[in-house]
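From the pipeline queue, job 12 of 40. The input is one protein chain; the requested action is below.

Action: predict structure.
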Amino acid sequence: MKTIQTLKDVLTMSGRCLLLSKRNPDTILTSIIAPILTMLLFAYVIGGAMQTGETSYVNFIVPGIILQCLGQCAATTAIAVCSDIKSGIMERFCTMPVKRSSILNGHVREAFIRNMVTALLILLVAFLIGFRPEADLLGWCAALLIISLYILTLSWISVYFGMIANSPEGAGSFSILAIALPCISSGFVPIDTMPKALQIFAEYQPITPVIDSLRALLLPIQPKQTRQLWQSRSLLQLKTCTLLSAILWCTVLLLLFYILSVRAFKKKSNH
């Protein structure tokens, strides 16, 4: 019975967050319009000057565009959490007969649904402008699982930043980091075209294996830096290594920020 009640509370809280998102024009802008404009900008304005060799530039950038736009949408969650704290509504929820865990989980569930819709929208627009993946059903399922894990991780990171921010405006600044990291990765240009210092950072930061995993699953190419590091390995081993690296990064960050968010919430609710 407790589990059923907890699920009902989570559904209620996430339903509230979804209603607030629908009424907020900024959410529509960041979740729908901005991703489409970003895709068109990179494909038609910047794409003509880029050389990716093995595939078209549209194919090359789609994984990076997805992750960058999800980072852009993450600010909405951080702002919503911070706004609930500053307005006193979260404190009021803590005095009501609802599971406290459902308060944060409601924000995470709403963010997951909204960001998944955004990711699917980006894929739809990408198909319309020339994105041609060659994945089979298993590859698509694996890619969607990676995107889902990334969204879940990003949602808990957003919740934590919303919990510790002093103002909704400050919480929104989290998106700068989430948007910038895909730019300093294999998302938009081959890593070997970067300065040496940036190459080292780009190869070992958490966004790169996620992007490389999506490329390996959806497209018949593999990251150049991965080939250099694993020249003696088969293509299957390369894909497996990249995929496991992405899952490991996301899982570690997910658990870390889940724990930090719960601790921050307990401190807020006990004051």
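Job complete. DSSP finds twelve helices and no strands in the chain.
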